[in-house]
Amino acid sequence: MRRITFAAAGVALALTLAACSGGGAGGGSGSTGTASAGGNDGKGTLVGVAMPTQTSERWIADGNAVKKGLEDAGYKVDLEYGNDDIPTQQQQIDQMITKGAGLLIVASIDGTALANQLQAAADKKIPVIAYDRLIRDSNNVDFYVTFDNYKVGVQQATSLLTGLGLVKADGSKGDKTGPFNVELFAGSLDDNNAHFFWQGAMDTLKPYMDSGAIVVPSGQVTIEKAAILRWQQETAQQRMENLLTSTYSSGKKVDGVLSPYDGLSRGIITALQNDPSNKYGSSVPMPIVTGQDAEIASVKLINDGVQYSTIFKDTRKLAEQAVVASKAFLGGQTPEPNDTKSYDNGKKVVPSFLLQSDIVDKDKIKPLLIDSGYWTADEVAAGKAS
């Protein structure tokens, strides 16, 4: 609750600053045609917020921060979690529309499975904001708030290269030359972000793969082979176990693993630690394992020298932009994007507001996570939120 309150305060501040300066995704000229149930600013309007799952602390924090920010701005909120089940999320959005929602904020489970719901929203002139995950194959997506997901992939690959010693922290050439044995993991294929993460990472790693500094002994170098459905930790652990059995049963050792999410990273690390050959563990340095989302369990692993890095996407800022964009729509305006080229959903280029992310290794935990109030030192030490 402490972090949710902090995030809500940040949302309120962002709304104030946006109103004063026009920064962020604040309203531009032009009307959306949306009826404002509570007046010109839409105060009192019901906003439906559909989040994908409660199995990740990240999505719980997102949902609560968006809800609190909207309520503080004067809107009613229906927050639902789909529990990674597509029909459940479809039904939840249908119900939001039936209840009279004037705006929908959707972090989709499957970015291609909501065409009927979005058409129903469009028929009632209900704007739709895609939240962090792009909704595909529909003209009825009005705005997108997310991070620069290609850059996130670049950062993940860069942190892997840095951990291996091929690149220095300042971006210059590292002292190591390889070759290093690396295995690649990707997110769920039905999540558009997974493809951006993968492309950014592979574009960054390709020169090192071409030169032989990085090799992938399993030969699994396509996103289809590397993908983990629904981003499940257990599935990642099983795939890593299979790789160890099929490819590393002799004297060969894993030097690094590209992992696009902390939950996957923890599954990968568990598989490595449980490897019957005892190649990895307390007496031997762990492979360089990347991650994303700065989940507290993984931050502790980074602090303890087990996981190498994560990518910090400050979801407080993402929630802020969702609220700012909502305020614009419900006030009869159009939010101002900062990107109108990158996110083609198969039907249209969706106007987007992109936020920046940061690489967090052990040295960056305090300045980026603790000093910003995202986690406390005690939470990092314990590996769980207070």
Automatic annotation (TrEMBL):
Residues 47-333 form the Periplasmic binding protein domain. PANTHER family: D-XYLOSE-BINDING PERIPLASMIC PROTEIN. Residues 1-25 form the signal peptide. Pfam families: Peripla_BP_4. Keywords: Signal. SUPFAM superfamilies: Periplasmic binding protein-like I. This is Sugar ABC transporter substrate-binding protein.
